[in-house]
Structures are given as structure tokens and as C-alpha cells.
Design goal:
The structure is a single chain. By secondary structure, the chain is α/β, with parallel strands linked by helices. 26% of the residues lie in helices and 16% in strands. It has a single domain (6-427), classed as Alkaline Phosphatase, subunit A (3-Layer(aba) Sandwich). The strands form three sheets. Strands 1, 2, 3, 4, 5, 6, 7, 8 and 9 form a nine-stranded mixed beta sheet that branches. The protein has a four-stranded antiparallel beta sheet with strand order 10-11-12-13, covered by helices on one side. A hairpin with a 3-residue loop joins strand 11 and strand 12 (437-442). Helix 6 packs parallel to helix 9 (273-303). 48% of the residues are buried.
Length: 506
């Protein structure tokens, strides 16, 4: 290996952190992620910084917590003043190239009011060159399917399994094959582009799957049985779960079936154990499908002679409830929405590999790339470089807890604001969780406290128990101190003196 490394950043949308065979999942098999981990490092307690897609990706791309980047929901613009991993890589001499999507709503202050970029949150992160876009409407993939003989592939109805009514949960196969999935399409486009490269490159492959709708081609559609998918973390029933907190009583009935099964109507609350088990089994199959395409990419890198000079980062934007707590999707405060996979293989460290058990964050990816490529970020960052772990060194200071945020404001319809009688800036929560306790602080709703040692499924809220009052207050103080430490330090660590500016590193 000589010179600058190639950089390959892969995200698989909505992949749970526990769905890896390398971490001992009961039935999911991910041989290609496992193979990557065998030559690198698997970060077992890695967490998204926010949810859903746009806020989560803003943290991943900028190295900032939501409290600083302020992308509160899909559609919140990303402030143009912030640096990001694509802009930084460009300063290092790369042409960062995208396959997929970044879900970045542009800063409207620099655009004309009639600019069509202001009509969607599925914009392009500044700094990237788009080689093959694939937003959620999937039109590029649908066009490709038609070129392969699927004359009916004009809408997302193509996801409805063969012979199945829209809205029906089914493990039937889709009309498109395992070689014609969105994942296969993007993998193929990357491999074709790879053959054109003769200098060090930076690529970001952003896969849509295992994001819903939940359906899959043969053989992944029924690779797992609903009987494999019954180990849910949840209360006895929907009603008990909803009564446990005002936020859940508001949010759970509003989760729509159509977000998960194409053509379905009504709320997810209508589904029972057998439905969630059937959906989870399909979800596991979708993970296996993505893993197979990762293997195809690993082989292409090796055949091109690029494997030994490519830094590979595999992760997700956020996770998926997959039936835990009687719901699907992402958001809220449960671990199921935020615990995500992270595997890093650095050719500089291939003689070392292992599992990292320290708490890490999506905010750590950008500072890690800055450290690896010796790039100075243009503003303060909240994350920390993971490079010491790749050298099997313990960083002098490292976080002792995971932290994430969720903002449930609705600027357009004002639904939660009206329901709770709150202002938009009061519709948010923050979580701090360590090995023992998890504390959830709402800006204007009651807090939650879980003892994870005795209650790993997060079912027994201790926040109002007088016995735990001192613990609740201590975690509230930890959260307050953590947020105070992460106030923007861009210029706060600079002081003008008679000898010029003096700057301290964080």
C-alpha cells in the first residue's frame, strides 16, 4: 500500500445493530460483513445521533450532534456554514462520488424561491459528485428494470410480491430477481465506475435497503421463518405500551402501515404478534440480500487490485424497531431505533482486528476520516476520531455513555404541537445511556429512567419512583454537562493576542 488510500463509505438504511452474525444473532447470517470485521474492527455499541433519515445523516456527515447541526426532521435544511466529510475530502484532493442518496435538504437562504431543490429533502450533500442518484422514488432503478424486460416497472408497485394484493403481508417473492434489486443496481454502478479509476478515490454507496417496504426477491423472501422472529422487546400488549408514556400514547397510533407494506392502509396498531413476526422475518431476508451485494463489492475491489489500499467503513443511518414495543420504523427513545452496525477495515491496520465495546457515535465518522486523511475540519466537531481503536489503543478520554436526540416537531401540520399544547422547540427529547441506566429527558414531557441491568427491554419507567430520585437527578446532571461540553467550540477555542490568534484543539 502506497500513497493515499481509497475511501469507501457504505450505509445500509435502517439496519439494526444486533442483526449481525458476528455479534451472535440467533438466526441472521451476514458472512460478508463478518468477513470485513475479521480484517478490521467491529464497534459493538455504536449509536445513531438522531432519527429519522435526514437528522441521522446530518450527524453522520457533519460530525455534529443534532443540538448543533439542527436538522430536526426530514425537510429541515442543513445550514450551509457547516463542514462535512465530502467537502473535507475534496480539500484532501479527492472527488467524493455518490451512489444513492444523502437526504440533505439545502439551505434555502442561498437559493432562489423558485429553485426546485427547495421542493424536496432528498437533496445532495455539498461536496459530492453524483454518479448514480437513487432517492426513495427509485425512478432510476425502475427505468433500469424496464430495460431488463420488466415492462410493468413504472411505480413502486413493483415491490408487491407476485400474486399478492397490495397491503398484504407476504413472504412471496417479488417480480424482480436477486440480481435486479436496488442494492444490486447500485453495487453494479459502483463496480462499473471502479473500473474507470486510476487515482485514489472516495466513494459513498448509500443503499436503500433494508429500509421498507418489506418485501424481497427469491431466495431472500422466505429465507427466514416467522418462528425465527419472535423474540420481541415489548410490553404485554399495545395498550400497556402506549399507557407507559404520553409520547407513546400520541405516536404509536399514528404509525402508518403503508410506510412498511406497500399499499397497506390503517395504523400499525392493528397488527398483532403474527404480523410483526412475518414482517421481521422478511426484514432479516432483506439484510441477507444486502450482505450478498457487499460480498460482490468486496470481490470487485480484490479483482481490481484495490482491496489492499481501500479504507472501508460500513454502517447505517439509524435502525428499525422491527416489532419491538409493538411498533415499526424509527424515532422516539428506544435503543431499537438507534443501535446501528459499524465496521471499519483500514488497510493500514490489517494486522490488527477486534471488537470495540466502548460507546461510539455516528458523529465519530467524520472526525475519523479527518484524522486518517490529515484534514482540518472547518468548524468544531462533536465526534471523536476512532483511529486509536484501530491501533488497539485506548484513547485518553472517551465517552462513558451513548447519547442521541429525537425531535418530533411538525412545522407544517403542527400535529404534536397541537396535541401536547407545546411550541415546536419543546417537541424534543435527549437520551443518555450507559451500562446501567438510561435516562430520557423531554423538553416539556415527563422524563423516563430505565435500569438496564434489571430491565434490558426498557419496560419499567423508574423516573417517578422516590427510591431512584437521586439516580434520576444524577443522570439529568450528566446529560446537562454533556450538552454544555458540546456547545459549538469553533471560535470558542480561539483567542486573539498581541502575537496573533492562539487556538487550542478540543
Amino acid at each position: 500500500m502506497t500513497g493515499r488510500p481509497n475511501i469507501l463509505l457504505i450505509t445500509a438504511d435502517q439496519w439494526r445493530g444486533d442483526c449481525l452474525s458476528a455479534t451472535g444473532h440467533a438466526c441472521v447470517k451476514t458472512p460478508n460483513v463478518d468477513a470485513l470485521a475479521a480484517e478490521g474492527f467491529l464497534f459493538a455499541r455504536h449509536y445513531a445521533g438522531a432519527a429519522p433519515c435526514s437528522p441521522a445523516r446530518a450527524t453522520l456527515y457533519t460530525g455534529l450532534y443534532q443540538m448543533n447541526h439542527r436538522v430536526c426532521r426530514n425537510g429541515s435544511p442543513l445550514d450551509a456554514r457547516f463542514d462535512n466529510l465530502a467537502l473535507a475530502a475534496r480539500r484532501a484532493g479527492y472527488d467524493p462520488t455518490l451512489f444513492g442518496y444523502t437526504d440533505t435538504a439545502p439551505d434555502p437562504r442561498g437559493l432562489d424561491a423558485n429553485d426546485p431543490h427547495l421542493t424536496t429533502y432528498e437533496g445532495l450533500l455539498p461536496g459530492f459528485t453524483a454518479r448514480q442518484l437513487l432517492p426513495e422514488h427509485e425512478k432510476q432503478w425502475l427505468s433500469w428494470l424496464r430495460s431488463r424486460g420488466h415492462a410493468e416497472a413504472y411505480t413502486r408497485d413493483i415491490h408487491v410480491p407476485i400474486g399478492v394484493r397490495p397491503g398484504e403481508i407476504s413472504s412471496g417473492p417479488t417480480a424482480y430477481s436477486k440480481d435486479e434489486t436496488q442494492t444490486a443496481f447500485l453495487a453494479g454502478e459502483f463496480i462499473r465506475w471502479l473500473g474507470e479509476q486510476d487515482t485514489p478515490w472516495f466513494a459513498h454507496i448509500s443503499f436503500l435497503r433494508p429500509h421498507p417496504p418489506f418485501s424481497a426477491p427469491s431466495p431472500y423472501n422466505d429465507l427466514f421463518s416467522p418462528a425465527d422472529a419472535l423474540n420481541f422487546a415489548r410490553a404485554e400488549n399495545h395498550e400497556t405500551e402506549q399507557r407507559s408514556h404520553p409520547y407513546l400514547s400520541y405516536a404509536m397510533p399514528r404509525v402508518a402501515k403503508g410506510s412498511f407494506i406497500h399499499g397497506a392502509t390503517g395504523p400499525v396498531n392493528d397488527w398483532q404478534t403474527s404480523d410483526f413476526a412475518a414482517i421481521r422475518a422478511i426484514y432479516y431476508g432483506m439484510i441477507a440480500e444486502v450482505d450478498a451485494q457487499l460480498g460482490r463489492i468486496w470481490n470487485a475491489l480484490k479483482e481490481a487490485g484495490a482491496w489492499d489500499n481501500t479504507l472501508v467503513i460500513f454502517t447505517s443511518d439509524h435502525a428499525e424497531m422491527a416489532g419491538d414495543h409493538w411498533t415499526l420504523g424509527k424515532g422516539g427513545f428506544f435503543d431499537g431505533s438507534y443501535h446501528i452496525p459499524l465496521v471499519i477495515r483500514d488497510p493500514k491496520s490489517v494486522t490488527r482486528c477486534g471488537v470495540v465495546e466502548r460507546f461510539t457515535s455516528a458523529a465519530d465518522i467524520f472526525p475519523t476520516l479527518c484524522d486518517r486523511l490529515t484534514i482540518e475540519p472547518a468548524n468544531g466537531l462533536d465526534g471523536q476520531s476512532l483511529l486509536p481503536f484501530l491501533k488497539q489503543e485506548e484513547p485518553e478520554t472517551w465517552r462513558k455513555a451513548a447519547f442521541w436526540e429525537f425531535d418530533f416537531r411538525d412545522i407544517t401540520a403542527q400535529e404534536p404541537e397541537t396535541h401536547f399544547g407545546l411550541h415546536s422547540n419543546e417537541c424534543n427529547l435527549a437520551v443518555i445511556r450507559d451500562d446501567r441506566f438510561k435516562y430520557v429527558h423531554f423538553a416539556a414531557l415527563p422524563p423516563l429512567l430505565f435500569d438496564l441491568k434489571t430491565d434490558p427491554m426498557e419496560l419499567n419507567n423508574l423516573a417517578s419512583d422516590p427510591t431512584y430520585l437521586s439516580i434520576r437527578l444524577s443522570y439529568a446532571e450528566k446529560l446537562l454537562s454533556m450538552r454544555a461540553r458540546h456547545l459549538d467550540q469553533t471560535l470558542a477555542l480561539t483567542e486573539l493576542t498581541d502575537k496573533g490568534p492562539v487556538r487550542r484543539r478540543p
